[in-house]
Backbone:
């Protein structure tokens, strides 16, 4: 699809109904159970120490995130999302790429912290907590069945939101932010077109993370 | 896949290039049939298609762009014992000129039919390359009809040019009681040129139904047999003299029955059509 792309509206790219989209998580959880719960529990154990020890354990957390992105690429995008989205493999490739970038950063770059008093390391843990504890509960709170819940390490949204948290705690290069931000924009538009009540939640998390990064980076650059 | 089935009193219109008659209500598949591997949802789609045929329907429209829809239709047709009357309308959706024939064969395989009845160039995508191949396929008997599609407001003048200059059997466009721009030129032109017209988005993707859901249907809608808003909107579309059929999409058996009922009984005449438009515009 190339010619006349400007004549398309975002709605023209919506390929599935809200019912199909949410049921996909139920089918995903059902087929892989208890893997989603397991990745979530291990994710909590791996990322929780960041709240106390900050950037010092960020290397391990970043490595763990790399695995989580890879798992989402395979278990969600290749296995399931591809069956309802023509470009499912492209999403899988993007998530695998982010996983590889995170792995590269974990392996080669020692974690850098922020200047004392920066807000990024304090906002980060909140985003991790929201991604891992808030997002899985959001669907059931909004009236969707609990078996459609989205879990860290197998569904994109909790994984991406927690990633923003880690990227804030450990001062990260801009290119690690690119795919998570693009994903949240796409995700927000999709959910908005599906008239989901929680359409703005992940874009709001991305905006908060970007704002915290921006403010912290500015205060760092003003340091003599 | 020729050979009409279904109740004899369903309204049909001829495809001008062949004289073959098609029921005035068909079935779309964008979003509604893209349910992936979901077994329960696939069963519901099969039910929709079963009721569609039982009420005299024939033409089902899909596209390689619609995710798993083609496979879901194919599985439903198999489950229903390959109904003889199905009119398989699909599309070529590719910017690569060489991909057309491979895509057409993949589409036919997914439908599980011996040949596709109609292949349309989706949204005029690379039509310069695809149309000649489609005409060749038609001449060789690999497909029966050739068409192009577009949807609301998109590349209208180019579509008009193709309708004027190409030996098309079908053109697919958006037309409904609110989006009536094509009344002025394209629809009369298609009629003059002897090209069948398939109407997509008769409910504006459901938005029109949502808009009127809480309003009572005007009592005079009974005069032309409309007992609900979907029937009111469909009867408006298919009563246009240039329209061959409308292809509302639905995921619900009850809705397909309601939609197919619009293909029976009286249709609004010119005066009633004007009244329908005036009513919609004043509300
Ligand atoms: N360029 C192109 O080639 C092109 C572009 C657009 C569309 N198309 C074709 O045209 C078809 C129709 O267009 P569309 O699907 O975009 O929109 P549409 O048919 O105007 O509207 C579909 C919506 O109407 C609802 N609906 C259908 N019957 C109903 C009823 N009796 N009562 C209440 N709700 C009802 C369906 O929901 P439920 O599932 O709940 O019934 C669905 O959400 C497409 O499926 C596709 O095959 C082609």
Residues:
């Amino acid at each position: 699809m190339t010619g006349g792309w400007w004549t398309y509206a975002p709605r023209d790219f919506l390929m599935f109904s809200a019912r199909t989209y949410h049921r996909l998580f139920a089918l995903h959880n059902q087929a892989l159970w208890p893997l989603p719960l397991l990745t979530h529990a291990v994710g909590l154990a791996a990322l929780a120490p960041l709240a106390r020890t900050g950037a010092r354990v960020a290397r391990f957390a970043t490595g763990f995130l790399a695995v989580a992105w890879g798992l989402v690429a395979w278990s969600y995008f290749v296995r399931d999302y591809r069956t309802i989205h023509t470009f499912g493999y492209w999403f899988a490739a993007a998530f695998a790429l982010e996983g590889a970038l995170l792995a590269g950063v974990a392996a080669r770059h020692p974690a850098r912290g922020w200047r004392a008093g920066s807000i990024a390391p304090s906002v980060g843990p909140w985003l991790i907590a929201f991604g891992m504890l808030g997002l899985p509960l959001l669907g059931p709170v909004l009236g969707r069945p609990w078996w459609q819940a989205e879990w860290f390490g197998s569904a994109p949204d909790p994984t991406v939101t927690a990633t923003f948290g880690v990227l804030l705690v450990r001062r990260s290069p801009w290119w690690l932010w690119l795919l998570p931000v693009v994903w949240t924009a796409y995700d927000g538009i999709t959910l908005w077109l599906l008239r989901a009540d929680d359409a703005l939640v992940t874009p709001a998390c991305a905006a908060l993370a970007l704002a915290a990064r921006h403010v912290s980076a500015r205060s760092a650059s003003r340091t003599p | 896949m020729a050979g009409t089935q279904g109740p004899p009193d369903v309204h049909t219109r001829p495809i001008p290039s062949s004289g073959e008659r098609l029921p005035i209500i068909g079935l779309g598949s964008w979003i509604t049939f893209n349910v992936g591997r979901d077994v329960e949802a696939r069963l519901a789609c099969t039910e929709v298609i079963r009721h569609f045929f039982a009420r005299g329907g024939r033409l089902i429209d899909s596209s390689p762009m619609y995710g798993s829809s083609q496979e879901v239709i194919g599985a439903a047709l198999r489950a229903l014992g390959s109904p003889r009357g199905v009119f398989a309308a699909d599309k070529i959706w590719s910017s690569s000129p060489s991909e057309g024939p491979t895509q057409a064969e993949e589409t036919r395989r997914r439908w599980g039919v011996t040949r596709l009845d109609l292949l349309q160039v989706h949204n005029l995508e690379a039509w310069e390359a695809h149309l000649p191949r489609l005409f060749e396929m038609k001449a060789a008997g690999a497909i029966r009809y050739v068409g192009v599609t577009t949807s609301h407001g998109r590349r209208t003048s180019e579509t008009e040019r193709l309708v004027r200059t190409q030996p098309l059997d079908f053109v697919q466009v958006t037309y409904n009681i609110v989006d009536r721009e094509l009344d002025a030129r394209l629809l009369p032109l298609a009629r003059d040129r002897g090209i069948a017209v398939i109407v997509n988005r008769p409910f504006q993707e459901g938005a029109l139904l949502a808009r009127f859901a809480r309003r009572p249907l005007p009592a005079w809608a009974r005069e032309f047999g409309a007992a609900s808003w979907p029937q009111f909107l469909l009867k408006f579309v298919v009563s246009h003299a240039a329209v061959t059929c409308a292809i509302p999409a639905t995921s619900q058996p009850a809705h397909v029955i309601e939609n197919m009922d619009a293909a029976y009984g009286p249709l609004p005449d010119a005066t009633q059509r004007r009244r329908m438009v005036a009513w919609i515009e004043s509300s």
About this structure: Residues B 28-30, 32, 61, 122-123, 149-151, 172, 200-206, 209, 230, 247-252, 255, 258-259 surround NAP (CB under 6 Å). Chain B touches chain A at residues 31-32, 34-38, 41, 64-68, 93-95, 123-126, 151, 153-155, 205, 251 (CB under 8 Å). The two ends of chain B are 44 Å apart (CA to CA).
